[in-house]
Specification:
The complex is a heterodimer. Chain A is mainly β. Chain A has no helices and eleven strands. Chain A has a single domain, classed as Immunoglobulins (Immunoglobulin-like, Sandwich), CATH 2.60.40.10. In chain B, a hairpin with a 2-residue loop joins strand 7 and strand 8. Classes of the chains: A mainly beta, B mainly beta.
């Protein structure tokens, strides 16, 4: 039962253009969403996040959009650069009573930015 | 100045052996996690500790036993290794959730475990 889905395993974009990575979720209790970037042989690196009280969060070239009614979020990278080539993971968390948050991850989208 | 470090990076061992993976964070975080990334690249939480106390324990075989000697360390010990344990194991840490409603988790570089 995969609660966070990234249906595109890969995406190829030309340098300078916009990259749009998509993520869908099924658990309506999720209230915080994150994007991680992962290079080969390294751990995931936090990129940007958004809470469910917002529909957009921007940080430099990276913008995350949240559509709660559609249970969909997307990451926009503009302009795309060759160094952005990596696997991007979408993650979500639900309110927890304790002191730790449990992240549920999608299976990732491999982004290739070409020259 | 590595934030979250893991040793070893690669671990190759025979079925039935017992092995440990170590994790240390120097971020001053109170909460640490272990994740498993299987062959399908699915990253799934296994355990979480807060100040040496077990907080999250997903459905993981009891051959897996996390140990937290202090809040900066969370080690993972695996008994009687099986072929299906082959995966990449990631350690992560975050601030205690009560200090901030939402928190990001910072990941280590991963340990690739291969069981032959």
């Amino acid at each position: 039962d995969q609660q966070v889905k990234q249906n595109s395993p890969s995406l190829s974009v030309q340098e300078g253009r916009i990259s749009i990575l998509n993520c869908d979720y099924t658990n309506s209790m999720f209230d915080y969403f994150l994007w991680y970037k992962k290079y080969p042989a390294e751990g995931p690196t936090f990129l940007i996040s958004i809470s469910s009280i917002k529909d957009k969060n921007e940080d430099g070239r990276f913008t995350v959009f949240l559509n709660k009614s559609a249970k969909h979020l997307s990451l926009h990278i503009v302009p795309s650069q060759p160094g952005d080539s990596a696997v991007y993971f979408c993650a979500a968390s639900a309110p927890t009573p304790g002191t730790a948050s449990k992240l549920t991850f999608g299976t990732g989208t491999r982004l290739q930015v070409t020259l | 100045d590595t934030a979250v470090s893991q040793t070893p990076k690669y671990l190759v061992t025979q079925m039935g052996n017992d092995k440990s993976i170590k994790c240390e964070q120097n971020l001053g975080h109170d909460t640490m996690y272990w994740y498993k990334q299987d062959s399908k690249k699915f990253l799934k939480i296994m355990f979480s500790y807060n100040n040496k106390e077990l907080i999250i324990n997903e459905t993981v075989p009891n051959r897996f036993s996390p140990k937290s000697p202090d809040k900066a360390h969370l080690n993972l010990h695996i008994n009687s290794l099986e072929l299906g344990d082959s995966a990449v194991y990631f350690c992560a840490s975050s601030q205690e959730l009560s200090r901030r409603r939402y928190n990001e988790q910072f990941f280590g570089p991963g340990t690739r475990l291969t069981v032959l």
